[in-house]
Fold this protein.
Amino acid sequence: MKHGSVSAYSNGGCRCAPYKEAGLSYQRERRRIRFESDAFVHGTINGYKVGCRCLDCRAAVLSTVQARAAKRLAEDSIDHGTVNGYTSYRCRCDNCLAAMRSWKQQYAQTPSGKATQQRAARNARKQHPEKQKARAKVGYAIRRGDLVRPNVCEWCGDEVYTEASHTDYAKPLDVEWLCKECHRYKDGLLSEQRAIRRAAKIADAGVANLR
């Protein structure tokens, strides 16, 4: 058996380090050939599979995943309030959301979860240094007393723990104090259903000062 070859992995069951490089090289070359071929079309699942991450190819994958989830929702009976309902069926009811949040909280306390959080924090500091600098300045201003963290969200009016939301990181102390859900809504990180519910709540509260 020749180590460092694709056949050693597939036929011989070898998992040595040299194979990893051989396998990665093989996959990269196949993707390059398919990417440069005339048959490659943007806005398709195949385009995403060969390595394209343009908006059209991402949208194609997302629409396919959503369609499959909707089909499973229509055909199968979902056990609501479970992680499986959230992940496999993409159900976003309150019970499935609560189950997923509970699982994430439990996972965050495990050694693997803590390592994942530390790795994500390191990557965030490297990729978005301006965000980290702005957040550090806000924290320092709070400790000095220059900024006071309110316990009311400026958008929905809920009395909860608030987070400092920046519109311009070049102005680190110019912030809006938002609850976690409104902060994610502002950054466009909520699912469609949650975004609709959050927008309705903000409109009902009548206290939002959208910039």
